[in-house]
Amino acid sequence: MALFVVSACLAGKKCRYDGKSNACPEIVRLVEQGRAIPVCPEGNLSIPRIPCEKRGDRIVDRNGRDMTEAFQRGADEALRIALNHGCVAGILKARSPSCGVGEIYDGSFTKTRIPGNGLLADRLLCHGFALFTEENLPEMLKD
Questions:
Q1: Dihedral over Cα of 123, 40, 73, 49: its sign
Q2: Which band of pLDDT confidence, cut at 50, 70 and 90, is reported for residue 70?
Q3: DSSP 3-state assignment of 67?
Q4: pLDDT tens digits, residue range 74-87?
Q5: Is the pLDDT at 139 greater than 90, yes or no?
Q6: Cβ(91)–Cβ(10) under 8 Å?
Q7: C-alpha distances out from residue 106 to 21, 33, 44, 134, 142, Å
Q8: Global pTM value
Q9: Over the chain, what is the mean pLDDT?
Q10: Are strands 52-55 and 58-61 parallel, antiparallel or unpaired?
Q11: In angstroms, rounded to a whole number, what is the distance separating the alpha carbons of residues 103 and 85?
């Protein structure tokens, strides 16, 4: 049983909006050890795609198109996977409109940060998950 659900981009999967990854060695190692399940709540969207940010309760792309429904579907599926694998904690991509924990971009596409969570992060928190980002890994994972 995996302990962590992790953002797939942090595990090395090229699923970011720009087709790149955000591979984090500690998270790659967790997945290789079978202690983490990678998920991408944006995996139902095209790669590459126009960047999106959370603006209030909506997710919009840089052109102003409302992408909320697609992001909600992805967050629901990622939550289902995490629960089915018995995960109890998550390590998610900082500031992402899906995965951000405690801080996200404000929807202006100016890199302005505000307090808040991404859609998946909110769902995991509602289910009692302990959440971290690649910027504040749990002590047990630090070398």
A1: positive
A2: very high
A3: coil
A4: 999 999 999 999 99
A5: no
A6: yes
A7: 22, 36, 23, 20, 30
A8: 0.94
A9: 95
A10: antiparallel
A11: 27
Residue 139 and residue 7: Cα distance in Å, rounded? 18
CB atoms under 10 Å from CB of 85, counted, come to 15
Give the DSSP letter string of 5-47. EEETTTTT---STTS-----HHHHHHHHTTSEEEE-TTTTS-S
**CB 97 within 8 Å of CB 13:** no
Distance CA 93, CA 99 (A): 5
| Cβ neighbours around 35 below 10 Å, total | 15
- List the structure tokens of 40: 């991408």
In this structure, of 38-42, 55-59, 119-123, 135-139, the range with the lowest mean pLDDT score is 135-139
How far apart are the C-alpha atoms of 1 and 19, rounded to whole Å? 30
